[in-house]
Amino acid sequence: MKLDIYKIILKPVITERSTHIKEAGNKFVFEVDPRANKREIKQAVEKLFSVTVKGVNTATIHGKTKTTFMRSGRFTGKRPDRKKAIVTLAKGDNIDIFDHV
Fold first, then answer.
1. Total domain count for the chain?
2. Is there a domain that residue 60 lies in?
3. 100 is a domain residue
4. Does 8 have pLDDT greater than 90?
């Protein structure tokens, strides 16, 4: 299935770990559409940010199941599944949105 490049990259992940990865190895972390594959993620990042991508690693984070006990009974819910992509850029390339954080 072909996804629109503007809907593949959902948002950047800005955490302490992602900042450390960025400084150590020129890698950037994004939350992406769970249906996107590595090839589509690579094309989307290259077109959106005008950079050269050397590699893409992905991780699927399964949502937690939460159970709440109340007077009226037990309720069970689940957080949505997410997918992260760690994108390695070529030497000399940079994405500016991470520099302002």
1. 1
2. yes
3. no
4. yes
Measure the CA–CA gap between 50 and 58, rounded to whole angstroms.
Answer: 21
With tokens 């559409």, the residue in question is 33
Task: Please provide residue 12's backbone torsions phi and psi, each rounded to the nearest 5 degrees.
Answer: -80, 150
Q: What is the pTM of this model?
A: 0.84
Residues 9-59: tens digit of each pLDDT: 999 999 999 999 998 988 999 999 999 999 999 999 999 999 999 999 999
Closest CA to 86 of 36, 22, 40, 39: 22
Residue 101 included in any domain: no
Secondary structure of 42-86 as H, E, C letters: HHHHHHHHCCCEEEEEEEEECCCEEEEEECCEEEEEECCCEEEEE
Angle at Cα 27 formed by Cα 58 and Cα 81, nearest 5°?
30
Tell me the β-bridge partners of 84: 31, 59
Structural domain contains residue 98: no
